[in-house]
Design goal:
alpha+beta; four-stranded antiparallel sheet; about 35% helix; about 100 residues
């Protein structure tokens, strides 16, 4: 298994982030949502507001979480892990880093 690296997203990561979110959410929402969960323009808009943390292994983006500070609190959303990488602790690691 490759080591997991966590880093802040850059605008050039928008397409990969969009792909990871859509493939991960399709597993749970695919039966009642017709189409993608998010599009690249929405990801770019979120990147302009705050930050995505990215989890990479073997040089490939495999997971992400959106983090936005709201006063003394923060919002975490769109936690996504590629289905091929689920159940290996990547989501937990992303949550830990986001917190």
């Amino acid at each position: 298994m490759c080591a997991i690296a966590i880093r802040l997203a850059e605008p050039s990561d928008a397409a990969a982030i969009t792909s990871v979110i859509n493939v991960a959410f399709h597993i749970v929402e695919g039966f009642f949502i017709d189409g993608p969960r998010i599009d690249q323009a929405e990801v770019e808009q979120l990147l302009g507001k705050r930050a995505f943390l990215l989890a990479e292994a073997g040089g490939k983006l495999n997971g992400c979480v959106y983090v936005e500070l709201r006063g003394e609190r923060s919002y975490l959303g769109l936690l996504s892990v590629d289905p091929a990488c689920q159940h290996g602790g990547m989501g937990s690691l992303l949550m830990l880093e986001a917190e």
